[in-house]
Amino acid sequence: VAGCCHGALDKMYETLELLQRRHNVRPDLLLCCGDFQAVRNEADLRCMAVPAKYRHMQTFYRYYSGEKKAPVLTVFIGGNHEASNHLQELPYGGWVAPNIYYLGYAGVVRFRGVRIGGISGIFKSHDYRKGHFECPPYNQQTIRSAYHVRNIEVFKLKQLKRPIDIFMSHDWPRSIYHYGNKKQLLKMKSFFRQEVESNTLGSPAASELLQHLKPTYWFSAHLHVKFAAFMQHQTNSKEELPKATKFLALDKCLPHRDFLQIIDIEHDPSAGDSLEYDAEWIAVLKATNSLANVTQSSWNMPENNGLHAKWDYSATEEAIKEVLEELNHNLKIPCNFTLTAACYDPSKPQKHVEPVHTINPQTTEFCAQFGLTDINDRIQQAKEEGSARGEYEEEEEEEEMDSTGSAEEPSEYNTDNSGLSSINPDEIMLDEEGGDEDLSTCSVDPSPDHPPDFSASFSDIRIMPDSMAVSSDDAMDSTNEELDKYGVSKQVEEKSLNERPLKRIGGNENGNGGIKKIKRRNQAIYAAEDEDKTE
C-alpha cells in the first residue's frame, strides 16, 4: 500500500524491486491512495490543481506510452492533485496504462478473492450534492471541484451489503484519529490540534462509509503522515458478530518517510492473477443508473423520509445473478487499455496544447455492456445543447458563484473541512512568490532520471505486523511510546529492514518554533489554503 505517489512511479516500482532482491518479498498487488498523477502530456499538467512550480511531468508518461510496464498490478484512487481530465475519462474505472487500474469516482473490484473498494477525491460540502458537470478545459473553480466527492458515489457505496475486505479513500475519515495514538499524531503534526479537538479533521462522508461498510482494512493518504488506528464497530443486534477496522494512513512517496507498507492479507491462492469485476457493485451501478446527474444543481439522494417512492437501491440476489449470467460467470476485467491522448515527448515539448474533453472507448464499452449512462457523453450533449441556446456560459458563471460561497441549500454536513484549516508545512502550499497564476501556462520541467538514493530511502519500507490493533484512545493517550508496538513508529523487530531514521529538515530546527507564513498573492486562483488544504 502506497500513500501519495505524486507521479514518482519509477521510484515506487524500483523500491519494490529492491525489496524483492533484499528480502525475497514480492507483493502481488500495489494499492495507491490517491495523488497518483497520471500525467500523459503538457495538457494534463494544466488540468492538475497545483501551483505552477509543482507541475512536473514526472514518470507516468513512460508507462502510458508503453516504454515501461508496471512490474506489479497497481490499483489506485484519485486524490486532489491529479490530471483530472485524464481520470474523468474513466468515471466507472479503467486502465490508465497497462497493468495500472483506476477505480473511478467510486468502485469495487476483486483480486484473488479479496474485495477492494474505494472512493476518489476529497470532501467539500459546497460541491457534495452537485452532479459531475465539470469537463475540460476547466476554469479556476472547476479545476478544483472536479475532484470533490459527490453524494451519488457515497450513496452507491452505501447500497453494498456484502463484506468489504479493503477500502481506500484519499482524505481520512473524520474522527478516526480518536482510535489511534492521538498524542503521537499531534506531536508529529501539531498544526492538526485545532481540527482534532473540534473534530473537523477529515471527511464526514468517508466517516459515514466507514460506519456503514465496516471493512477489515481502510487505507488513506492526503495528510502526509503515517498513522494507525483500530476501530471497533458497534453491532446492531445481539446476533451480529462484532466487526473492527484496521486503519492506516501513509506518508507521501520517496524520499519522505512511511510512504509504503507491506501487508499480508488472506486471499485465495488458487485464484488467478487477474483483476475482476465485483458482481454486486455492477448490480448497484445498474440499479442507480437513473440517478445520474451532470448538472451543478444541488440535490439530495433518495431516503426513507416520505419524499421518495424508492430509496433502497441495494442489489438483490437475483440482480447479482443476472450480472453473473451476462458475463457468463467470467468476471475478469478486460485488458482493453487504449491511448486517448498524445504522449509527452521530451524532445518535442508542447507547452501550449489545449486540454480537450474526451470520450474513452473503455467507458463506452463498459456502459454498453451493462446498460449504463456514459457520464461524459451526457456532459458533452448538455454542453452542446447549452451552447446552442447560449446558456452554457451563464451556467459556468453561476457555478463559479456557488463554488466560491454563494447562498445555496445547506449541506447535510455542517462543516467544510476535508483536511486542515491551519498551515501544514509538509503539504503542497500556495506559491510563495509571484502574483496570480495563469491556468493557460504550465512549467514542463521533467524530473531528472536519477536513480533513487535507496541508502536513505529504503529504510522507510515497513513490514506490517500480523495485527495492526492499537489500544483505546484513553490508553493511547497515556503514553507516547505505546503505538511503537504496532509498527507505526519503528520496525517490527523480527522483520526489521534495518531502518535508519531520517532527519526532518525545517520546522523547529535551529530553535525556530514558528511556522513559515505563506504569501497569498495568488489567492484569485488558489482561493485560500483551507479551500482544498493544498496538500
Automatic annotation (TrEMBL):
Subcellular location(s) of the protein: Nucleus
Signal peptide coordinates: none
Domain of life: Eukaryota
Lariat debranching enzyme C-terminal domain segment(s): 231-376
Composition-biased stretches (Acidic residues): 392-402, 428-439
GO MF entries: metal ion binding; RNA lariat debranching enzyme activity
Record GO cellular component, one term: nucleus
InterPro entries assigned: Calcineurin-like_PHP, DBR1_C, Dbr1_N, Metallo-depent_PP-like
Keyword line: Hydrolase, Iron, Manganese, Metal-binding, mRNA processing, Nucleus, Zinc
Predominant location category: nucleus
Region named Disordered: 382-458, 493-535
Keyword NAD: no
Listed SMART domains: DBR1
Pfam families for this protein: DBR1 (PF05011), Metallophos (PF00149)
Biased composition (Basic and acidic residues): 382-391, 493-502
One of the GO BP terms on file: mRNA splicing, via spliceosome
Requisite cofactors: Mn(2+); Fe(2+); Zn(2+)
Ranges of compositional bias, category Polar residues: 412-424
Family note: Belongs to the lariat debranching enzyme family.
Protein name: DBR1 enzyme
Organism: Scopus umbretta (Hammerkop)
Lineage: Eukaryota, Metazoa, Chordata, Craniata, Vertebrata
